[in-house]
Amino acid sequence: MRLKLKLGDVLVILGIVLTAFFILVSTYEKNTIEKTAVITQNNIVLDRIRLDRVSEPYTINYGGDYPGTITVENGSIRFSHAECPDQVCVDTGWITRPGQIAVCIPAGVIIKIEGQDPDLDIIVK
Amino acid sequence: MRKITLNGLLISLALVLAFMERFIPLNLFVPLPGIKLGLANIVTMFALFYLGIPSAVTITLLRCLLASFLFGGMSSLLYSLAGAFLALVAMSLLKLGYPKFFSVIGISMGGAAAHNAGQILMASLMMRNTAVFAYLPILLFAGIVTGLLTAIVSANLFSIFEKTNFITKVWGK
Prior knowledge:
The complex is a heterodimer of chains A (125) and B (173).
Chain A: H1 7-27, E1 36-41, E2 44-50, E3 58-62, E4 68-73, E5 76-82, H2 88-92, E6 101-104, E7 109-114, H3 120-123
Antiparallel strand pairs in A: 1-2, 1-7, 3-4, 4-5, 6-7
Chain B: H1 2-21, H2 26-29, H3 40-50, H4 53-72, H5 75-95, H6 104-127, H7 136-163, H8 166-171
């Protein structure tokens, strides 16, 4: 009987869905052939990798309180091993598209894939 | 005395729920990293509805502290506090419109969304990087479902409590 949906509930759901869509739209990036994975730890850039130019898979280790390993393949990247308690980063799996991220919060490590900057196209000949 | 005992019981119940939740392999059903059912929120909702905001704050604070000491690791403390308290604020505000404008569903979902927002906000502050916000939409959508689930459990619990006069018996009012 308490579970009757009220007008306010509908507004709450609508608000959540709209917020989610707004963030989705504002973080959406077009899929491009050129893909750069940027690995940062506590906002310090550890590595920038041109994923479309990777020929052989390899791994990158990072340190800190919760060290771990990142595996790079052609066009994709992932956390393959981490010492953090929650393992959210490893569970995220491969990321492949510009705009996608994989995060290890305890270690402070973020992998973000950046696409080709459309403005650069005009400058670089 | 009764109040201290009841608060203590609720803290342990919230802790047990938060601990048990870690063993539910939610990833097998929905392959989204980092999502939780938020079972401990049922206890917060109960406290908010029957014991008032001070009790809800005490229970939430101690649950977060103890959970971090026992199994979360200290790095998780700030995230769970940010999530839990933003959820508490949101639910307290939504409860002002209860039962006329909001039902348990809206309050629970609003709490779940605020919890997610709080954790992402804390993550972006700690890592000084706004990239983590890209993960918020998935969490928000998941929160609608988990918020509904905890609302169903809470509403059923509350109606059983009221039918059996459980609160008056325990609380002695």
